[in-house]
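Page 42, continued from yesterday. The earlier attempt failed because a stray header line got pasted into the input along with the sequence. Redoing it now with the clean sequence only.
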Amino acid sequence: LLEKLGLHIEAETLYKRAITIGEAVDGGGPEVAVRLNNLAGLFEEQGRCSESEGLYRRALEMAQSGGTCPDDLHVATYATNLGTMLEAQGRYGEAEPLHRQALELRERFLE
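This time it went through. C-alpha coordinates are written below.
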Protein backbone atom coordinates (compact mmCIF):
# COMPACT_ATOMS: atom_id res chain seq x y z
CA LEU A 1 0.00 0.00 0.00
CA LEU A 2 2.76 2.44 0.90
CA GLU A 3 4.43 1.82 -2.45
CA LYS A 4 1.20 2.59 -4.30
CA LEU A 5 0.87 5.81 -2.35
CA GLY A 6 4.38 6.81 -3.39
CA LEU A 7 5.71 6.45 0.15
CA HIS A 8 8.82 4.54 -0.91
CA ILE A 9 11.02 5.45 2.05
CA GLU A 10 8.36 4.31 4.48
CA ALA A 11 7.78 1.10 2.51
CA GLU A 12 11.51 0.36 2.43
CA THR A 13 11.79 0.91 6.19
CA LEU A 14 8.89 -1.42 6.93
CA TYR A 15 10.11 -4.14 4.55
CA LYS A 16 13.55 -4.05 6.17
CA ARG A 17 12.02 -4.20 9.62
CA ALA A 18 9.81 -7.14 8.66
CA ILE A 19 12.83 -8.96 7.20
CA THR A 20 14.86 -8.39 10.36
CA ILE A 21 12.03 -9.61 12.58
CA GLY A 22 11.37 -12.62 10.37
CA GLU A 23 15.01 -13.63 10.39
CA ALA A 24 15.10 -13.34 14.18
CA VAL A 25 11.90 -15.29 14.72
CA ASP A 26 12.14 -18.16 12.23
CA GLY A 27 15.63 -17.86 10.82
CA GLY A 28 14.51 -16.79 7.38
CA GLY A 29 11.48 -18.82 6.40
CA PRO A 30 9.11 -18.33 3.48
CA GLU A 31 7.75 -15.02 4.78
CA VAL A 32 11.23 -13.51 4.76
CA ALA A 33 11.66 -14.58 1.14
CA VAL A 34 8.36 -12.87 0.28
CA ARG A 35 9.51 -9.64 1.96
CA LEU A 36 12.89 -9.80 0.21
CA ASN A 37 11.12 -10.18 -3.12
CA ASN A 38 8.84 -7.24 -2.33
CA LEU A 39 11.76 -5.03 -1.31
CA ALA A 40 13.60 -6.07 -4.46
CA GLY A 41 10.59 -4.96 -6.51
CA LEU A 42 10.56 -1.61 -4.75
CA PHE A 43 14.25 -1.11 -5.44
CA GLU A 44 13.83 -2.15 -9.07
CA GLU A 45 11.02 0.36 -9.46
CA GLN A 46 13.38 3.04 -8.13
CA GLY A 47 16.16 2.02 -10.53
CA ARG A 48 18.27 0.54 -7.74
CA CYS A 49 18.96 -2.55 -9.83
CA SER A 50 22.14 -3.69 -8.10
CA GLU A 51 20.41 -3.81 -4.73
CA SER A 52 17.32 -5.31 -6.30
CA GLU A 53 19.26 -8.11 -7.97
CA GLY A 54 20.88 -9.17 -4.72
CA LEU A 55 17.54 -9.31 -2.94
CA TYR A 56 15.84 -11.23 -5.77
CA ARG A 57 18.70 -13.73 -5.74
CA ARG A 58 18.51 -14.09 -1.98
CA ALA A 59 14.73 -14.67 -2.07
CA LEU A 60 15.10 -17.23 -4.84
CA GLU A 61 17.88 -19.04 -3.00
CA MET A 62 15.85 -19.14 0.22
CA ALA A 63 12.82 -20.51 -1.57
CA GLN A 64 14.88 -23.17 -3.32
CA SER A 65 16.88 -24.30 -0.32
CA GLY A 66 14.55 -24.24 2.63
CA GLY A 67 11.28 -23.21 4.10
CA THR A 68 9.41 -23.94 0.88
CA CYS A 69 9.63 -26.89 -1.43
CA PRO A 70 11.70 -26.51 -4.62
CA ASP A 71 8.67 -26.76 -6.91
CA ASP A 72 6.74 -24.14 -5.03
CA LEU A 73 5.15 -21.39 -7.09
CA HIS A 74 7.10 -18.85 -5.06
CA VAL A 75 10.27 -20.16 -6.68
CA ALA A 76 8.71 -19.60 -10.09
CA THR A 77 7.66 -16.07 -9.13
CA TYR A 78 11.09 -15.14 -7.79
CA ALA A 79 12.82 -16.64 -10.82
CA THR A 80 10.50 -14.69 -13.12
CA ASN A 81 11.06 -11.43 -11.26
CA LEU A 82 14.84 -11.78 -11.34
CA GLY A 83 14.78 -12.91 -14.96
CA THR A 84 12.60 -10.00 -16.02
CA MET A 85 14.89 -7.50 -14.33
CA LEU A 86 17.97 -9.05 -15.96
CA GLU A 87 16.21 -9.10 -19.32
CA ALA A 88 15.42 -5.38 -18.99
CA GLN A 89 19.15 -4.80 -18.52
CA GLY A 90 19.95 -6.74 -21.69
CA ARG A 91 21.41 -9.65 -19.71
CA TYR A 92 19.59 -12.22 -21.78
CA GLY A 93 21.98 -15.10 -21.15
CA GLU A 94 21.34 -14.83 -17.42
CA ALA A 95 17.61 -14.20 -17.79
CA GLU A 96 16.75 -17.12 -20.06
CA PRO A 97 17.49 -19.98 -17.62
CA LEU A 98 15.45 -18.23 -14.94
CA HIS A 99 12.47 -17.86 -17.26
CA ARG A 100 12.82 -21.50 -18.33
CA GLN A 101 12.95 -22.61 -14.69
CA ALA A 102 9.83 -20.60 -13.88
CA LEU A 103 7.96 -21.99 -16.88
CA GLU A 104 8.92 -25.56 -16.00
CA LEU A 105 7.76 -25.12 -12.41
CA ARG A 106 4.45 -23.62 -13.48
CA GLU A 107 3.86 -26.38 -16.01
CA ARG A 108 4.55 -28.99 -13.34
CA PHE A 109 2.07 -27.27 -11.07
CA LEU A 110 -0.64 -27.66 -13.71
CA GLU A 111 -0.11 -31.41 -14.07
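Notes: Helices lie at 8-26, 30-45, 49-65, 73-88, 92-110.
Reminder to self: strip header lines before submitting.
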